[in-house]
Amino acid sequence: MKEKPMDSKKSNRRGFLRGGAAAAGLAAGVVQSVKGQVPVSPWREKGTNKEVIAYGERSRFVTSVRSPVAERDSPDAFGLMFHVLSPLQDSVGSITPSSLHYVATHRGSYVPEIDPKEHRLMIHGMVDRPLIFTLDELKRLPYVTRVHFLECIGNRSKPTHKTVQETHGMTSCSEWTGVLLSVLLKEAGVQSGASWIVAEGAEEIKGASSIPLGKAMDDCLVCYGQNGEPVRPQQGFPLRLIVPGFEGIYQTKYLRRIKVVDRYYMTYNDYGHINPDPKVSALGNQIGPKSVITYPSGGQKLSGPGFYEISGLAWSGAGAIRKVEVSTDGGKSWKDAELRTPAYPMAHTRFGFHWKWDGKECELQSRCTDELGTVQPTRAEAAKYFNKPLDSNFRVPGADNTVQPWRVASDGSVHNGLA
Amino acid sequence: MGSLKLLPIVMILGICSHIGLAQAPTYGLGRTPNAEEIRAWDISISPTGKELPPGRGTAKEGEQLFRQKGCAGCHGATGIGARAPALVKGGPPAEPGKAPPAGMEGMHMVPDTGIMALRSPYAVTIWDYINRGMPLNREGTLKPDEVYALTAFLLYKNEVIKEDEIMDAQTLPKVSMPNRNGFANLPEWKHRAPRLAGYP
After folding, report:
1. Chain A contacts in chain B segment 56-95 (CB below 8 A)
2. How is domain A120-147+179-274 classified at the CATH fold level?
3. pTM of the predicted model as reported, rounded to 2 decimal places
4. Which end of chain B is more exposed for a tag (fewer CB within 10 A), N or C?
5. What average pLDDT does chain A have?
6. What's the Rg (C-alpha) of chain B?
7. A266, B184: Cβ pair inside 8 Å?
8. How far apart are CA A327 and CA A203, in angstroms?
9. Digit-coded pLDDT (tens) for A114-133
10. Is the pLDDT of residue B21 over 80?
């Protein structure tokens, strides 16, 4: 990755960070006594020792969990899982733990139990040689490992949302491992005249989406690995198609079939996503540059004036993140944040920003620029573009990638700036 | 059909295998499915309807099936007003400016404008969805005749076709859908290109 070599500037920043953190610790009175560093108890949960040795668990003091979207419960009246939000406010780094990865299903879905030995992927349609692969055969092929975010098009901040989990929790990022779809399509031999593929899952609804053949040949992945282990069942075990930078709905779980075709197939998934307005239509499919501050964010509380490291995530469906800026005065002035993780294409990129809070009310914002130079817009800019009045009713057309404001009150409490 | 024109030359020169090289498999993994396997798995239906199976159905037959197959249990006896999405128009008009719930933008959950038989540009999409996704927990159990009949029923109840129109592989793709021309062209995707040039 393109990381800057260590320079004097960076070491100066480190020095500042150390000093700042120590000062903050002293100010808040959180320096622990020796007694405070003794474990609460040795780990002696009866009956679980074998399991804990076999498969590790997080500390019982770590309680960060996912939650269903407010609009529809999961499980719902039919027992279906709909949309489940990732707790971004607790996130660090750029990788989402698989257990906390957001889940979204189109109409609501059950998580199917699939025996990987029985699972097959068929590639057919406008190809010279239709092919069926077992999982073992796919694993024999050359693979790639890439970091990519996923995001649901429904991931939009509303004034009623309190936390970043509610405003932005339908995005997550994983390290995915699998075979480039282009490898499989070349093995099958795509015929001239083909222009789309239809990818289909093996779950009860057999969810299917039309994907441009150009994208399929460019960077799509047929994944069996996620974050160092097999793809989790809620994420599509044993096979998931990753369509980097595209809306979540294209990331076909339980992938069982790819049909090469000569037109958009207008599946159930597809038809919900088309739009009368060409501009709104263009804002679908590929996710725009987007960022959000995860700390401090809605529902959190600053313990008092002093040093804080503002932290957040930035991503773009068009490529890598080049720059993130932070404003602590409601968007009047902007300063560059530091990228704290490698800026992979179509991946969450963590940013950090040193900040000394003076204890006064203020508004925090972040905005990012991707490798194409496209800048994340504010709601005001989006409203102006679409010639709509900017009020709380304004709904950003297409996938909403606008700047998220967090309002810090003088008591240190943090609130959704849209409220 | 340039490749067909080339064929005699290729045969004369006897380099079939070389011509095929660019398209030849590199790894030779996977096996060739037989026609029956492809037929059994391939449930995709093009807007042209070319994959539609033989069969037929009418709205009257569909009305009976709507009760027999349990559709009415979730969608309501009249196809509206129950806990599953409305299938028949007659609900409250969509409120302009009112945001649909997260993830349901432009979806079937939106009153009337989101009803599949009214929103979808192709009747085939309804057939495809019923065939692959309904009834809940018994997906894939409906026979082609039943899917044609249920599709006809929904189209008739939304005043898209007449009650006695027979839906089959020939008539269904030709149904004139009210929203056939209601959508913008799909955006063309290009490698590393912005979504909408000029958007802030």
Report:
1. 74, 83
2. Sulfite Oxidase; Chain A, domain 2 (3.90.420)
3. 0.88
4. N
5. 90
6. 23
7. no
8. 45
9. 999 999 999 999 999 999 99
10. no
